Amino acid sequence: MHSVLSALGSSFWCRKMVFDAAKSVGIVKSLHIASESHTVGDSYDEAIKTLNTLQSNAETIQQTVRNSGDIETARFRETEKFLRRTGVPLERLDTLSVIHVAGTKGKGSTCALIDSILRSHGIRTGFFSSPHLISATERIRLNGIPISEENFVKYFWRIYNTLQKSQDHERDMPTYFKFLTVMAFNVFLEEDIDVAIVEVGIGGEYDCTNIVRNTKTVGITSLGLDHTHILGNTLEEIAWQKAGIIKSKSHIFTVDQPPGCLRVIEQRAKEKNATLTVVPDFDTYNWVQFPGKNVGTKVQRVNASLAIQLSHDWLQHHRLTRLKRKVNLLKEISEEISDGIENTKWPGRCQIIPFHRRTIFLDGAHTLESMEVCAEWFVDNTARNSNPKCLIFNVTGSRDSKKLLRMLINTSSFSTIIFTPNIASEKFHATDNTSVLTGRDEALERCRKNEKDLQDIIAEKVSKNGLCGLNGFSKLQCQVLNSVADAFAYLDNMYGKEREIDVLITGSLYLVGASLLALEHVDAKK
Questions:
Q1: Residue 52, domain CATH
Q2: 265 with 328, same domain?
Q3: Which residues are documented as binding site for ATP?
Q4: pTM
Q5: Binding-site sequence positions
Q6: Are residues 335 and 365 in the same domain?
């Protein structure tokens, strides 16, 4: 029986696999574990449980962004304080070469492509991303590999204990994401890397990753409406936030944007005396060797073009001895770049997993624009077969599930729709994916709201088109279940284990992560 892990590719690591692989490439060194009386797994779980106590909700983030009378305080002082307490003043942070990437859609994928392209040139990379799918170690990568649990434990407890001992008051600790940002910079400074590829958390201007100053190469991916309660209600407001990572005299690369967004980015670049370039269309490149993977969709090609130019710009700066450098767009694509694109592993985005008699389609789309792309991708890959089409769906935060569901059901005809929390199983659930802010009952209530939204959409169709509005929905099965594992079991019972079905899992990267974990455990039982 095939393994889910092998289907996911080499970047999808269970905990022991991460450690073993890291040892094999020399990343893991002799480490002092925080507590000698515990196993690595125990110590790791303890670290994650402690990390989870630092979780903050969206209201806390919004308060930081909007109620800060002193922008410099919101942007720098708290993060700077925590870094300094861990032995990293800004002057030391300046020694870290950084490629900084913001955007609404595709920033993680773009960073993963940059990481792989640079490694194909022999560059030693660090990569900080969010969120993780299964293990928190995924957020901090060295040379393409998530740091080992032992390394995570070592850095976590050293930084946590240092910050706790230096508290001015009981609540003087960083939030979850800010802590991991501080930890990532500590890791990158101590490990032997040439460049840190840093994905912005939310926004850019006020994001704690924006503490970095030595950023000569900046990327802004496709923009859209997301986190509007934090970043603003218009594309222009969001563009202003994203462009906040532009540094003085840096080179900024972006993709084709709505005109209003591009005007905002241009203005912010002008304010910083920075150079802005819109990257070429992917189809205009000349290839020595065309990549065999990761360029199959329009979105993947947009991200790849941005990654090519960001990588090229950094390589030029890295190898240049002259003080001044000019933007020199790359048009002739080398074999190293092609290999880097083809070898990129970034699970949970336009990912297809053949799983026994099921074909699982995973995509963490959670904005209207990205859901449109996801729906088209699913149809393109399933329209030519007669398999039943099933949807497993969830959204988090303040996102409008009705708009996302309407996009999905208008594009594809589903026979079964299941709403489930971002929980792999009630029998097994990774501590890494535990939310201390949202309980099981609250998560299920959100699922019931999603189901109600679907019912409202169908009712609207009937009201508008009469009984014809029921076309495609008369035999629809709709369920709210407790976990992804329960959803898989439900599909097995409904269709039998031998019938081929296509299953789309989308709406949240956290749901995708829970699904990957559930698949791993289901596969282990076979």
A1: 3.40.1190.10
A2: yes
A3: 349, 363
A4: 0.86
A5: 130, 199, 227, 349, 363
A6: no
